[in-house]
Amino acid sequence: MEITRKGLNFNINATFSNELKSAIVNRLNNLTKPVGSLGYLEEIALKMGLIQGKVIPELPKRKEVYVFTADHGVAENGVSAYPQEVTYQMILNFLNGGAAINVFSRHVGADVFVVDSGVKVDVDIEHKRLIKAKIGYGTKDFTKGPAMTKEQAYACIEKGAEIADKAIEKGAELLVVGDMGIGNTTTASAVAVALGFGLDEILDIGTPLNEEGLRKKKEAIKYALEVNDPDANDPIDVLQKVGGYCIGQMAGFILKAAEEGFP
């Protein structure tokens, strides 16, 4: 896969050696257990082996979680149960170790980093695990037009890739991504539908949303797609028109990790 713009270039080899795959599966099937008895764990072992290029994959020692945070203009349409001020409050919670992701991460020995991808206010605090990568102060309401400019869409990819590159350089061996921001599930749903998924297939409440809120969410997504007409064959166009800063940065982060062969 290749994405190019002003030096932005990802070369990702999405094919794996059939010989390596066969060797990994053969080893798994010859362990002292019934074939396939470890279920999903065996799928993970196969995937890790293919990514690392090893028959016996190594357990990552340095694990890092990156939570990309941003606000979404579509929240103006009553698609969330909570106000946008909660996004900033959750950043403080993540940094103080009080969120669910912090608990899960502590159990597996992973460090949690928070990225300001585009929160609507200045995150004017200093913290060793806060990464300031703001593209803008929240996206625009995509029911009225594109969520961001094309330049901002490319900037999201570039900044996400830069963050992943730095993580790999300093020794991370397993990278995990997630996002937080009021209105984010509406944005994620709009992106998914723009890329071909059925709206009714994926629409859900996100936060504890009542029936009226869910109706507003569905209408906002439908209207955004009609107004912007994103091109499913052009991911940058989809990101620009109905995406979010956090989603764009996560995409760049994942692309860079894939290019470098890191899980």
TrEMBL record:
The keyword Transferase applies. GO terms for biological process: cobalamin biosynthetic process. This is Nicotinate-nucleotide--dimethylbenzimidazole phosphoribosyltransferase. Signal peptide: none annotated. PANTHER family: NICOTINATE-NUCLEOTIDE--DIMETHYLBENZIMIDAZOLE PHOSPHORIBOSYLTRANSFERASE (PTHR43463:SF1). InterPro entries: Nict_dMeBzImd_PRibTrfase, Nict_dMeBzImd_PRibTrfase_N, Nict_dMeBzImd_PRibTrfase_sf. The keyword Nucleotide-binding does not apply.
